[in-house]
Amino acid sequence: MSFFGFGQTAEIDIVLNDAETRKKAEHKTEDGKKDKYFLFYDGETVSGKVNVTLKIPGKRLEHYGIKIEFVGQIELYYDRGNHHEFVSLVKDLARPGELSQSQTFDFEFTHVEKPYESYTGQNVKLRYFLRATISRRLNDISKEMDIVVQTLCSYPELNSSIKMEVGIEDCLHIEFEYNKSKYHLRDVIVGKIYFLLVRIKIKHMEIDIIKRETTGTGPSVYHENDTIAKYEIMDGAPVRGESIPIRLFLAGYELTPTMRDINKKFSVRYYLNLVLIDEEERRYFKQQEITLWRKGDIVRRSMSQQATIAAQRFEGSNSESASASAQAKEENN
Amino acid sequence: MSEPTVADTRRLNSKPQDLTDAYGPPSNFLEIDVYDPQTIGVGRNRFTTYEVRMRTNLPIFKLKESCVRRRYSDFEWLKNELERDSKIVVPPLPGKALKRQLPFRGDEGIFEESFIEERRAGLEQFINRIAGHPLAQNERCLHIFLQEESIDRNYIPGKVRQ
């Protein structure tokens, strides 16, 4: 997203002030590759420098203004032209004029609200980035720097177990139980399947994790289902009274937190699918939604760099972090 | 608030299983054999019948043991009835083998031993697949096919209740 036109007279790049200390997070790009980006949380300040380097010594750079923007936007793949910006901040760095030599501009976006988590999916992308632009008569020179935002939650107050009796009348009755309804991304699903009536010939049973990405509204809603995991929990034919345990570690799978109706544009929800397969390959299944949330790392008492920064993160802006946890609570309920 | 660092992965409590359930006969016993092909009649009016024997302990079937003789067209009748009345995807029957019924063949056509064995195996797979299907078990045509001496083609289609 940077250079247009023939032969650049200037190069522009963005450097963060805390580039040395800030953690990076891995994030999948649209074409499936994994890249590392600077990690930010809601309420954190984004500050740095914009370096404008003149390529041809002696040649002045005429411009109509230099600015830097902090943008948070949602892109729907089927509607690329329209970006839905939910955060848009601008700082002017230079008024229209002339640069006779390379120059560095400082910028700071203080305590920026970043209400949603970065997400790259099958049909939609939510991203945050800094964009520095030199406006010119014919072609602007601009440079974008993507960052990754993660939304953190703490243990939900209410986290009831899921317990249900389901089946086909006179053929198959089971009672399934999962120990929680809300799991964090490195949690363990502990549960059991109890057989009350088995009149079919079951061959094996598995539990799948399904991710459903929903885009669009009203009549043009589109669901994209993706099976993230298939985990066999039973091999063989059960009889009445038998109880099959479930223990599924989530840390091994590529999961995101549950995202409900983000900016009214998309949702990402997760379901546990219990599947029983009989001798004739017929499948009997029961789907149940679970809520996934992201747990923050535990802050240790030792004064490591991370601890200092993490402490700043929560103390820096009381109003911002309070609104973030309030929204997180709402999403969990 | 102190947060646990290691998740509790202990098994959930469950009722101990009753020993008669654990070691008793399973509730899903259903076995159907298609065997003993017999070719009846002479010349052009020959046809082959197969014995269809069912043993089960499923309560939906009136008889726990039954034995009837059926021919290929009876299986076709069952397939058509189920396709029309039930919501299941009916598995395929072994082929009709029309080519084998043309004249001037070097072999016995549809009465060739190897062909009959092939067909027998296919019919056995077909009927077992259907009879185990919870939705097909409700259909009266299936019960007539498996447990009544002869198939009344003028029967009233409908569902069977336990």
From TrEMBL, chain A:
<protein>
    <submittedName>
        <fullName>Vacuolar protein sorting-associated protein 26B</fullName>
    </submittedName>
</protein>
<feature type="region of interest" description="Disordered">
    <location>
        <begin position="310"/>
        <end position="333"/>
    </location>
</feature>
<dbReference type="Pfam" id="PF03643">
    <property type="entry name" value="Vps26"/>
</dbReference>
<keyword id="KW-0813">Transport</keyword>
<comment type="similarity">
    <text>Belongs to the VPS26 family.</text>
</comment>
<dbReference type="InterPro" id="IPR028934">
    <property type="entry name" value="Vps26-related"/>
</dbReference>
<keyword id="KW-0653">Protein transport</keyword>
<dbReference type="InterPro" id="IPR014752">
    <property type="entry name" value="Arrestin-like_C"/>
</dbReference>
<dbReference type="GO" id="GO:0006886">
    <property type="term" value="P:intracellular protein transport"/>
</dbReference>
<feature type="compositionally biased region" description="Low complexity">
    <location>
        <begin position="315"/>
        <end position="327"/>
    </location>
</feature>
UniProtKB/TrEMBL annotation, chain B:
<keyword id="KW-0007">Acetylation</keyword>
<keyword id="KW-0813">Transport</keyword>
<dbReference type="GO" id="GO:0015031">
    <property type="term" value="P:protein transport"/>
</dbReference>
<dbReference type="InterPro" id="IPR001683">
    <property type="entry name" value="PX_dom"/>
</dbReference>
<protein>
    <submittedName>
        <fullName>Sorting nexin-12</fullName>
    </submittedName>
</protein>
<dbReference type="GO" id="GO:0034499">
    <property type="term" value="P:late endosome to Golgi transport"/>
</dbReference>
<dbReference type="GO" id="GO:0051223">
    <property type="term" value="P:regulation of protein transport"/>
</dbReference>
<dbReference type="GO" id="GO:0030904">
    <property type="term" value="C:retromer complex"/>
</dbReference>
<keyword id="KW-0446">Lipid-binding</keyword>
<dbReference type="Pfam" id="PF00787">
    <property type="entry name" value="PX"/>
</dbReference>
<keyword id="KW-0653">Protein transport</keyword>
<dbReference type="GO" id="GO:0051246">
    <property type="term" value="P:regulation of protein metabolic process"/>
</dbReference>
<keyword id="KW-0597">Phosphoprotein</keyword>
<dbReference type="InterPro" id="IPR051074">
    <property type="entry name" value="Sorting_Nexin"/>
</dbReference>
<comment type="similarity">
    <text>Belongs to the sorting nexin family.</text>
</comment>
<dbReference type="GO" id="GO:0032456">
    <property type="term" value="P:endocytic recycling"/>
</dbReference>
<dbReference type="InterPro" id="IPR036871">
    <property type="entry name" value="PX_dom_sf"/>
</dbReference>
<dbReference type="GO" id="GO:0031901">
    <property type="term" value="C:early endosome membrane"/>
</dbReference>
<dbReference type="GO" id="GO:0032266">
    <property type="term" value="F:phosphatidylinositol-3-phosphate binding"/>
</dbReference>
<feature type="region of interest" description="Disordered">
    <location>
        <begin position="1"/>
        <end position="24"/>
    </location>
</feature>
<feature type="domain" description="PX">
    <location>
        <begin position="28"/>
        <end position="152"/>
    </location>
</feature>
